């Protein structure tokens, strides 16, 4: 065997082979076991500390880089260099990150969905800094903080490289009293800002224009369409990314269609459809449902508050599905089947979940036609993809 857990923690040299779902590099121990290496890149020889020892797999983190990849860079953010875990890929050159994400999706589709030659399109790049228009932060002694990498320990920050300047200003200058966490949201289009403290009764000292509380909202504009986004509602982390996603979905759906928009959030995709004949939009979260009903009020759309797994579907031509990180799953695929749709436009934020959903949909008679990545989260291993499947 490879050695005891205590012996392994003394330091082991490994080589990263390829990137896999989750953003780790995959390597192999001398005894043949797979090792997932946090912080390594393909081709690098690194010294690692083993963090988890199982009979079938090890997990490790980089303790020292012995032979660095040419794609490795010094993290541009001082707080990332100090241990902030908000951006797990700041050590990866920005121009390389989209290709590594394509490699991760290709690997997941081959291994999990058994798609030998995935129909991947080039990733759509987006600016790598100042992009997050929604940020959730810890509070330590009244100041904004994030968690240290691979830890629950907080690290106080003075600024955030990836936060939009309107949000970063609140994080830098706000005083959040006895709050444990705060959610800050800004509209890039209207410059409106809002904040939700947890607990809600915490005393907050921020700029006068910042709305505070659970009823706060902003109006964001996506591809010319204004959308109300409440502080408790889910919305894409950046409006330029939301625009790219909405255009990809709109083109994939086509004009004059009957559509089911599952996990619809605030109605982003339904709001940008091309002359839909009828839309049924399904969402579980009450805040998002209220926003969707407001945002879709001028369309032939009906918003249903329901879990997708429990929704009793009606016949449509196309299904849009934008599930959480866990994916659509078996119950969600059954709902899609019962619509009788001939096309599914799947928006995924996790490579492994994307592959599992593609496998389930293939078993239901759908073939994968295209996968387009949008690099919504630079400096992180997070992946966003729009896939088109047809019967």
Topology, please?
Elements: H1 5-8, E1 12-15, E2 18-19, E3 25-28, E4 34-38, E5 45-53, E6 57-67, H2 78-81, H3 97-111, E7 120-124, E8 134-140, E9 143-147, E10 154-156, H4 165-173, E11 181-186, E12 193-198, E13 210-212, E14 217-222, E15 225-230, H5 239-253, E16 258-262, H6 268-271, E17 278-283, H7 286-295, E18 301-305, E19 318-321, H8 329-339, E20 343-348, H9 351-363, E21 367-374, E22 384-390
Parallel strand pairs: 4-6, 7-21, 12-13, 16-17, 16-19, 17-18, 19-20
Antiparallel strand pairs: 1-5, 2-3, 3-4, 5-6, 8-9, 8-11, 9-10, 11-12, 14-15, 20-22, 21-22
Helix pairs in contact: 3-9
What's the rounded overall pLDDT mean?
95
Measured distance between first and last alpha carbons? 48 Å
Q: How many H/I helices? A: 9
Strand order of the largest sheet: 7-21-22-20-19-16-17-18
CATH class of the largest domain: Alpha Beta
Cα radius of gyration in angstroms? 22 Å
Q: What is the CATH superfamily classification of the largest domain?
A: Vaccinia Virus protein VP39
Look at the helices and sheets and give the structural class.
alpha/beta
Number of strands: 22
Q: Could you tell me the strand content as a percent range?
A: 25-35%
Q: How would the global form be characterised?
A: globular
Estimate percent helicity: 10-25%
Poorly predicted tracts of residues: none
**CATH topological fold name of the largest domain:** Rossmann fold
Instruction: Provide the number of structural domains.
Output: 3
Report the sheet with the most strands, covering strand number, pairing sense and barrel closure.
8 strands, mixed
């Amino acid at each position: 065997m490879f050695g005891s857990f205590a012996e392994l923690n003394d330091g082991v040299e490994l080589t990263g082979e390829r990137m896999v779902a989750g953003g780790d590099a995959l390597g192999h121990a001398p005894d043949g076991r797979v090792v997932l290496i946090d912080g390594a890149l393909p081709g690098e020889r690194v010294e690692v500390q083993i963090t988890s020892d199982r009979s079938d797999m090890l997990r490790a983190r980089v303790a020292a880089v012995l032979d660095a990849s040419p794609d490795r860079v010094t993290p541009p953010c001082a707080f990332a260099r100090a241990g902030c875990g908000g951006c797990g890929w700041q050590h990866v050159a920005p121009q390389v990150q989209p290709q590594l994400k394509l490699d991760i999706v290709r690997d997941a589709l081959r291994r999990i969905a058994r798609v030998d030659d995935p129909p991947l399109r080039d990733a759509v790049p987006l600016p790598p800094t100042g992009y997050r228009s929604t940020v959730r932060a810890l509070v330590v002694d009244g100041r904004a903080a994030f968690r240290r990498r691979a830890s629950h320990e907080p690290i106080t920050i003075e600024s955030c490289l990836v936060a939009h300047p309107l949000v970063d200003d609140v994080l830098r200058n706000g005083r959040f009293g006895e709050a444990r966490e705060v959610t800050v949201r800004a509209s890039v289009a209207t410059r409106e800002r809002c904040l939700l403290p947890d607990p809600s009764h915490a005393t907050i000292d921020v700029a006068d224009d910042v709305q505070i509380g659970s009823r706060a909202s902003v109006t964001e504009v996506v591809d010319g369409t204004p959308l109300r986004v409440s502080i408790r509602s889910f919305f894409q982390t950046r409006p330029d990314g939301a625009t790219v996603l909405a255009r990809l979905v709109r083109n994939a759906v086509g004009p004059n269609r009957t559509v089911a928009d599952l996990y619809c959030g605030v109605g982003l995709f339904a709001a940008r459809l091309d002359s839909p004949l009828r839309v049924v939009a399904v969402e579980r979260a009450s805040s998002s449902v209220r926003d969707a009903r407001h945002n879709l009020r001028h369309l032939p759309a009906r918003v249903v508050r329901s879990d997708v797994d429990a929704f009793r579907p009606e016949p449509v031509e196309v299904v849009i599905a934008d599930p959480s990180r866990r994916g659509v799953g078996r119950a969600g695929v059954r709902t899609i089947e019962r619509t009788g749709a001939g096309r599914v436009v799947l928006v995924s934020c996790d490579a492994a979940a994307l592959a599992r959903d593609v496998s389930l949909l293939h078993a239901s008679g759908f073939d994968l036609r295209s996968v387009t990545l949008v690099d919504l989260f630079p400096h992180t291993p997070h992946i966003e993809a729009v896939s088109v499947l047809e019967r």
